[in-house]
């Protein structure tokens, strides 16, 4: 099928696909943001998109008291606009920037299937391949910059073997490479639809590994990794609901949102306990300290509830065909 086009009703005729175009623009967004920062020499800007909401930029230390685990908004990743100033080592911050965006694109790719069902938007599936390949491209550039920073492939190989978080990231890279190599129509024909689908379900563990890699390189500041992990839990929970035919019900979606939020809070508390020894009760209590920040658990639960309500409205106005409502199982 021609790039950025989709088959129209007429046989052999194609038209521009808004979904594919939007997906391509989203893939190009991190490169554009990075280019703008470099061209402007804006080495002091921490939030070029202006998305530094208090909930994403405040520190856990404020919620836990003095001496706790460092600010959660002032670490390596920061807000959605791309994190801290490029600083003394712009190459390192650039590879972190692209790696963070790769995780976001992986999650957005996994969100395509729920979104097309929850909002009865079949053509949204056209965007999934572009998003997935874009995430793989970001990971490849991320790894390439790491190799440049190390200066020697032998050093890179040694570091991958000796440092577990690099081993995890490299395994995710290899998995994405295998998915990218089979992300074309000819591969589906050669492998067969069933085998191809089984292979591409590796997107789930690959994303989990990417988020774990994100966690492990953040040291004390795990606000965004926690947020990404929470969204991943919601996406996986939705697939469980869909498998049992409950993926579009309001009550199950509300329960999923609340459960994902709670699981996110527990995950954050558990991570801080393992990484720093902070009492998990104090971390959980920080979720109620709204004067300091809005913790990732609330963002996950809030977005999940918003999706549930929006889907209910959309599906009432434009119901799914009966065979879709009864369908079970989900793809990536």
From TrEMBL:
<dbReference type="InterPro" id="IPR022837">
    <property type="entry name" value="MsrQ-like"/>
</dbReference>
<feature type="transmembrane region" description="Helical">
    <location>
        <begin position="222"/>
        <end position="241"/>
    </location>
</feature>
<dbReference type="GO" id="GO:0020037">
    <property type="term" value="F:heme binding"/>
</dbReference>
<keyword id="KW-0408">Iron</keyword>
<keyword id="KW-0813">Transport</keyword>
<keyword id="KW-0288">FMN</keyword>
<dbReference type="Pfam" id="PF01794">
    <property type="entry name" value="Ferric_reduct"/>
</dbReference>
<protein>
    <recommendedName>
        <fullName>Protein-methionine-sulfoxide reductase heme-binding subunit MsrQ</fullName>
    </recommendedName>
</protein>
<dbReference type="GO" id="GO:0005886">
    <property type="term" value="C:plasma membrane"/>
</dbReference>
<feature type="transmembrane region" description="Helical">
    <location>
        <begin position="21"/>
        <end position="39"/>
    </location>
</feature>
<dbReference type="InterPro" id="IPR013130">
    <property type="entry name" value="Fe3_Rdtase_TM_dom"/>
</dbReference>
<keyword id="KW-1133">Transmembrane helix</keyword>
<keyword id="KW-1003">Cell membrane</keyword>
<comment type="function">
    <text>Part of the MsrPQ system that repairs oxidized periplasmic proteins containing methionine sulfoxide residues (Met-O), using respiratory chain electrons. Thus protects these proteins from oxidative-stress damage caused by reactive species of oxygen and chlorine generated by the host defense mechanisms. MsrPQ is essential for the maintenance of envelope integrity under bleach stress, rescuing a wide series of structurally unrelated periplasmic proteins from methionine oxidation.</text>
</comment>
<keyword id="KW-0812">Transmembrane</keyword>
<dbReference type="GO" id="GO:0010181">
    <property type="term" value="F:FMN binding"/>
</dbReference>
<feature type="transmembrane region" description="Helical">
    <location>
        <begin position="101"/>
        <end position="119"/>
    </location>
</feature>
<feature type="domain" description="Ferric oxidoreductase">
    <location>
        <begin position="99"/>
        <end position="210"/>
    </location>
</feature>
<dbReference type="GO" id="GO:0046872">
    <property type="term" value="F:metal ion binding"/>
</dbReference>
<keyword id="KW-0479">Metal-binding</keyword>
<keyword id="KW-0249">Electron transport</keyword>
<dbReference type="GO" id="GO:0016679">
    <property type="term" value="F:oxidoreductase activity, acting on diphenols and related substances as donors"/>
</dbReference>
<dbReference type="GO" id="GO:0009055">
    <property type="term" value="F:electron transfer activity"/>
</dbReference>
<comment type="similarity">
    <text>Belongs to the MsrQ family.</text>
</comment>
<feature type="transmembrane region" description="Helical">
    <location>
        <begin position="160"/>
        <end position="179"/>
    </location>
</feature>
<keyword id="KW-0285">Flavoprotein</keyword>
<feature type="transmembrane region" description="Helical">
    <location>
        <begin position="297"/>
        <end position="317"/>
    </location>
</feature>
<keyword id="KW-0349">Heme</keyword>
<feature type="transmembrane region" description="Helical">
    <location>
        <begin position="131"/>
        <end position="148"/>
    </location>
</feature>
<keyword id="KW-0472">Membrane</keyword>
<dbReference type="GO" id="GO:0030091">
    <property type="term" value="P:protein repair"/>
</dbReference>
<comment type="subunit">
    <text>Heterodimer of a catalytic subunit (MsrP) and a heme-binding subunit (MsrQ).</text>
</comment>
<feature type="transmembrane region" description="Helical">
    <location>
        <begin position="253"/>
        <end position="274"/>
    </location>
</feature>
